[in-house]
Amino acid sequence: MPVYEYYCSSCKWRFEQLQPMSAGQNSQCPECGTVSRRTLSVFAAVAKGGEPSDAGFEGGYCGDPGAGGCCGGGCAM
Length: 77
Description:
Layout: E1 3-7, E2 14-18, E3 26-28, E4 35-38, E5 45-46, E6 52-53
Antiparallel strand pairs: 1-2, 1-4, 3-4, 5-6
């Protein structure tokens, strides 16, 4: 089962949940109970030689996906 990342636009909490692939895009926030949307996951890659690499991704959250903002990183905001 994969781990999915979620962002609560109500309390600004980021959380992860282990869910089946058939699970929907939404999950309940464990902090405030608001229905929260799944976000893009950003992961670190290991380059040759064992040094971490961010592959050009900034990570983090840039805005509300419902308002046209991006989520998960890669933007230059």
